[in-house]
Specification:
about 110 residues; alpha+beta; Arc Repressor Mutant, subunit A; three-stranded antiparallel β-sheet; 4 helices; about 15% strand; elongated
Amino acid sequence: MAFAIGPQLLDGCVLAVLSRGDAYGYILTQQVKARLDISESTLYPVLRRLQRDGLLKVYDRPYQGRNRRYYAITPVGRTQLERRREEWKRFRDGVEELLKEDEQDGQTYLFG
């Protein structure tokens, strides 16, 4: 079963990858795809949006006679990443609490 990945979560994942270092598009998409079931075509609009919002900067660097487009997280992007991490922790903890098994009888309760 696959879970839907909302835009805030996907943005946070992209920012997290770039917080480890600048990356060009192909490598960035491969790093995200290695952990999430998404297509490459999904990521490029995300990258454009993050750039437009000032969370990423873009620069080109020559490689074997061509330019590669690199993405780098900005200071604003790092601040946003920390917010997303905190939001994720609250969300994750809430879901884990809802899905945890009752310790007395081994039953999983989703409500009340």
